[in-house]
Amino acid sequence: MRDLGRALLRSRVWRSIARHGFPDSNRNRSLAVLTNFFLHFHPVKVRLRAIRFTRTFYLGGLSAACFLILTMSGVLLMFYYRPAVPHAYNDMKDFAFVVSSGTFLRNLHRWTAHAMVGLVLAHMAWTFLRGAYGPPREFNWVIGIGLLVATLLLSYTGYLLPWDQLAYWAVTVGTHMVAATPLVGPEIELLLLGGHSINDNALVRFYVLHCVVLPMTLALGVGLHIWRLRKDGGLHLPALPMGEDTNHGQDVPGSEEGAEGSPTDSVRLVIPNVEVADGAPDPGDEPMVMTFPHLLLREVVAFLALAVLLVCASLAFDAPLEGIADPARTPNPAKAPWYFLGLQELLRYYAPVVAGVLLPSLCIVALAVVPYFRVNIERPALWQVAPLRRLALLWLAIAVLTGVFRVGATGIVWSIVVPLWLVGAAMSAGALPWRGGRLGPWLRTRSLPFWIFTWFLLSAIALTVVGALFRGPSWRFTLPWRDGIY
Amino acid sequence: MPFVDDLRLPCDEDELERRRFLALLGSGALGLTAAGTAVVVARYLEPDVLDEGDGRFEVGRPDALPLGTVLVSRARKVYVVHGPRGFYALSAVCTHLGCVTGHEPGQDRIVCPCHGSTFDVTGRVTSGPATTRLRRLSLTLRRGVLVVDTGQPVGDDTVLEV
Ligand code: HEM
Ligand code: FES
Q1: Is the CB of A60 under 6 A from ligand 1?
Q2: Ligand 2: centre distance to CA B158 (Å)
Q3: pTM for this one?
Q4: How far apart (Å, rounded) are the C-alpha atoms in residues B113 and B129?
Q5: What is the pLDDT of residues A426-441, one digit of tens each?
Q6: A352 at B interface, C-beta within 8 A
Q7: Of B58, B1, B131, B47, which Cα lies nearest the Cα of A200?
């Protein structure tokens, strides 16, 4: 049996398919990666430090894995789904009752979509916190922002397709937000909907965007993203601490462990110098392993873990489906999917132009320019110079910002203001002359952009949680433990 | 095979000028084509004929609506109100982001389920994110019957006295 296998692997047919021998030598393992179309975006050898789980938590890779699962389950769903009123809704019912495994496929597609949005957001946050977007990776970060937007659009267009009440009204609110854009808004809405209300035309347009235009864009973008990652010298790693004088005698917390964390860990930040950033680091002092099997094995395990999780979720929980869309009756409350609830919560306070157009585009632009200001990278510690003056400045800025968020709002936006104060308090704690054990030095060495990003993150989470759990009929404040979750 | 290095081929000023001109011409033509394609695609995507129905519908005789009545037409997304100064029709579509509002008879107010805007029965905003009042729609009396035209907005104080 074993001989037969070996003979097969040596046969001319097999050798014409895979051009290398059995991967039991490093030469053949190299060839396995190099000559395989599906693997060739990997280098032949990887740095040991780069494949540690905590380096990336494989968040980017798992986002890509979600995209793969979504593509496969989505194509299967397309075999039954018709983008027309009322067939679209009836086909959902068919998936539930007459198509074998229909419910499972729909669930898988839905839960994987949620997972992908979460993973992409987490990937972005972690990439930021690691400071992994410095030169030469700036543009790859910008591509990443594009991928985030495409992911959200994919999710949004998919939301309409079941044509149930939830779908209809979430998309109604979304398109009115677009229509609130000054000047071009109504025209974009007309092009998006193919009419002035959401009906057959809009459904077909969303279908084409969801099944063709956006997936192709995303596939192209992901390819570009990963290709550039390779060209930029692989994952960003903090420079090796040993035997280098870049630390300027500062106390880098002892072991390699400490220096490895987020780059802001050491007071004076160590950016890899240009030669290192440009290409592969000096192989001399960097332990390497073969991609085959070390990295590939990890990737396979991560992918399988994700797949098992998603399959279990799809077997256990059914994707929601409400009554067929009724343009005359808005459900109360009408909630968007979770990742848009922060936005919907903002809409409670601000005019649509501000909450739906201005603030989101500002956030996206701010995120996109992040690498060009080298924020979060190479900064002297915040409180080293003139701590008292800076402290006064900080609280002045916080007071002003608190005022700014009151302008034009129908109340105090606690979800934004409270995180602002919390971040301010944490920053001030770092400025005070106390030692504070391990916490003190950590607080002191965070950079300003780190705090701003933390504030962003906390506000986004607070807005989302309030929108998801504390809002009931007519978007009134409710307590989930008393009134339940709407 | 000999390598011909075009960067080192001789080229005089006139030839260079000619090539610059041709390059300009070529890229101009490409740019025009791209712009033309964009316009044609945009025009294609914008529907020329829409079957969105006629906005007119009959409500009933005025004497069927005593003073203070708020008649709700869910299907047409319209309220017909008999207020102290006369009859008027209000669009039930929230001016915030387009959800369909509901009338709460108990408090005689109009509430939006999406982000909680409230309006009084004259259409004025009483609270919430909406900033503009509910649109008033044309209401006319034709052969003794009230007729609303949802396609025709009217001024905010327009009432129909019968
Ligand atoms: C569809 C969504 C995305 C996919 C499939 C994806 C995929 C990947 C993969 C596979 C990696 C390799 C390392 C890792 O697993 O973390 C990576 C790295 C990276 N990603 Fe993404 N990504 C996506 C979205 C984003 C977003 C939203 C951003 C940020 C705006 C971003 C910025 C980056 C950067 C800067 C790197 C390089 C990290 C380093 O060198 O250490 N990506 N991405
Ligand atoms: S749509 Fe009515 S309050 Fe937002």
Answers
A1: yes
A2: 24
A3: 0.84
A4: 12
A5: 888 877 777 777 888 8
A6: yes
A7: B47
